[in-house]
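pipeline/complex-builder :: batch 7 item 3
reading input block
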Amino acid sequence: MRSLSRIAAIFFKELAQLRRDRMTFGMVIMIPLIQLVLFGYAINTNIRDIPVAVVNQDQTAISRILIQMVEATRVVEVTERYNSIEEAEAAIKSARVRAAFILPDDLAQRIVRSPATGFGTPPSTDEETSRPVAQWIVDGSDTMIAGAIKGLRNMPLSEMFRQAPNRSTPTFEVALLFNPEQRTAVNIVPGLVGIILTMTMIMFTSAAIVRERERGNMEMLINTPVRPIELMIGKIIPYIFIGLLQTAIILGLGYLLFNVPLGDRPFDLLVGTLLFIGASLSLGLVFSTIAQTQLQATQMTIFVLMPSILLSGFMFPYEGMPLIAQYIAEVLPATHFMRMVRGFVLRDAGLLDMQRDILWMCGFFVLGLAVAAFRFKKRLD
Amino acid sequence: MPDVVVRAEGLVKKFKDFSAVDGLDLTIERGMIYGFLGPNGSGKTTAMRMLTGLLTPTEGTVEVLGLSVPKDAETLKYKIGYMTQTFSLYGDLTVRENLRFMATIYGLSGKKRKQRIGEVMERYELTDLQDRFAGKMSGGQRQRLALAAAVLHEPPLLFLDEPTSAVDPESRRHFWEQLFDLVEDGTSIVVTTHFMDEAERCHRIAIMEAGQKRADGSPKELMAAMGANVVEIEGPNLHEIRRRLLGATGIVAAAQLGARLRVLVKDDIADPEGFLKSMPETAGASLIERVRPNLEDVFVTSTGAGRQ
């Protein structure tokens, strides 16, 4: 009973302080709001309008048609025109363009012989007839840009001669589930919940306890009968509500602005989010027992935040990482949450489908809380 | 309940190679104000923290209110009040919120809590300030709040760590009156200070230096037993007289206080006034007169300050 009322006392105290700290309270709302709008609109892996240069050595109607066809794909946008390849390469080097499109002077001959035009297929062993029609020189340092231009390699040219498009059967059929329009926001918005919660939950809890130490309140608190576990639970409850509020802002606005589905499993989503909040908070508590100042607590948060952004699968696919990086990513709560939240809202998965991640998050939460309670000493030595 | 509230034997606290407290024995009886007097770094705060269980002694045993510390420190915390050196309640909470928080932490609830908060606010003149933020109050007001919070749960023993270092003399005097009221009600108080006038108000003091207790007793006893008589000299060139006196036989210490020179003369000299008057070093003095010793003299004779 005393324990419960002490936890309540700490909770209400924390709430009163939070309410009066306008700056922090503002950040609670503004961080998810601004970052959602910013990243939702800004991050796009469907690359469009890459600035490119054209070196047209052909200067015929057919070369101009070809350039228009390439531009019509919207993958590239011709921003520069040069007479020599050297000038084009210099433009790539100085980053005015990311690639150069070089049309040779025998373009017409190459085009009619190309299989892409659909005039039958000449034997590919014939050196003379199987030459590509033109060349791309690409700044390959950014693999995403290079990949987008590589996608143009097998562009059909049959349109050029008003022929029906090549109806050849693809080797494989690919059916896209869950995000058939391939909109990046559908993947980014649920993931953003994980990133923002990682940041705010770890930072707020660790700073909330370290602040008491910095301001000298802790010396008084440890002279009272309050137990470490009561102090910690009372301190983290307000942040659980903040975490839920931030999740609601991100997913709600994601639905309104970017039409990201919410899924049909609000209960599973709530449980999963609570577990992730719990895991992040317990990590924050562990940090609070190590950090002596709020600055140190912030640094520790960033130490976890960076891999949570880069390794969790938020930005780059988890599967593409080497095994060791995957192991590291498995430790981070964000990786499990990323899988879970995308499962709940996009793939209509339930808690049972995601039980591995659920279990792991439970374990992380309990272990974190235990370590923090064990490390938190009511002694000064 | 025992009549001894604090008993410590052979208390040692080492931080790496440095001994902050070095072999401290203490007996503090019920119903008194016991003061630790000493300069900064003399081990007062460390000693007090060991008594409340905040620090684990490297050596020695501590028993507070019959409980062994640090083993039973958590039980003890219900029975003691503690005031830290710097204000450590919440500046962004109001007086009432702070008190309510502390009362709940100490396990008070419902009517009892409300009643106690009302009582301490009344007693420490906080009723009119109850909706003020603690961070916006003066040093004296904050100190009254800190004391109110420390006695909410009516502890029989109160620890105050340099309670008046941040307040003006008027508030300090007032604060001590409140401490005596508490003693009247049966509370025992342990206080650290580096103010002589404060120490003089204690029933009993321990003079601390370099982690050791140099003297222990009531201020009166200590003054009587300090082994020196005090003589004040007036006249020109006091600075010069002081320089010549220091190092002369029979002289313990000499310190200039404004227009007077305060000289401690060993008490095996029967007539300290006559002794000084006859010394060539005091030539030119216009007045030589024996005065009542004070605690500062005790402090000087019992610590290194007198042996420089």
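note: The first strand of chain B starts at residue 4 and ends at 15.
queue -> next item
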